[in-house]
Write a sequence for this structure.
C-alpha cells in the first residue's frame, strides 16, 4: 500500500475551496485523470454515505469507479472510498486548513488495492507506477484548483 500527500497554499477561503473539491460533477475541470462524476441513488451533493460514479482517463484508456463519501465537513475535510465492483481501489482525502491568506489544501491518496488487483489495474489504466503517476496528477490538480478558486 502507498500513501501519498501533496499540499498547496491557495489564496481563497476554505469554504470556497471545499465547495469546489466536493462537487464531483466538476472534478474534470482540475484533475488530469478524473474526468468527472455523477451522484448516484438520488444523492445531489456531498454527504456521508453518498455515492457517485467517477469517470477517469489515462491516455486512450477510460474506466469508471463507484465512490462512497466517508468524511464530509464543509470547509475542512472531504474524503471518499473508491471501489471497482467488489474490489477496494483507493481512499482519497482533502484536508483544508485556514491560513492568513486563504487556506492550505492537502490532497491524500491511499492505495487500497490487493496485490492481484494492482496488477489488473495496470492493464486497465495503462499506468505502471500508480504512486508516482498520482503524485504528479495531484500536483496538477491542486494547481488547477488554485486557478479556479482565485479567478
Amino acid at each position: 500500500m502507498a500513501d501519498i500527500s501533496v499540499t498547496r497554499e491557495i489564496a481563497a477561503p476554505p469554504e470556497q475551496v471545499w465547495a469546489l473539491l466536493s462537487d464531483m460533477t466538476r472534478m474534470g475541470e482540475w484533475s488530469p485523470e478524473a474526468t468527472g462524476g455523477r451522484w448516484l441513488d438520488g444523492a445531489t451533493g456531498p454527504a456521508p454515505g453518498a455515492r457517485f460514479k467517477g469517470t477517469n482517463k489515462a491516455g486512450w484508456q477510460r474506466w469508471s469507479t463507484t465512490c462512497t463519501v466517508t468524511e464530509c465537513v464543509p470547509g475542512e475535510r472531504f474524503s471518499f472510498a473508491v471501489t471497482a465492483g467488489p474490489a477496494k481501489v483507493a481512499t482519497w482525502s482533502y484536508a483544508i486548513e485556514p491560513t492568513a491568506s486563504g487556506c492550505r489544501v492537502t490532497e491524500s491518496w491511499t492505495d487500497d488495492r490487493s496485490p492481484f488487483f494492482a496488477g489488473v489495474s495496470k492493464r486497465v489504466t495503462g499506468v505502471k507506477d500508480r504512486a508516482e503517476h498520482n503524485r504528479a496528477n495531484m500536483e496538477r490538480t491542486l494547481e488547477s484548483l488554485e486557478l479556479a478558486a482565485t479567478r
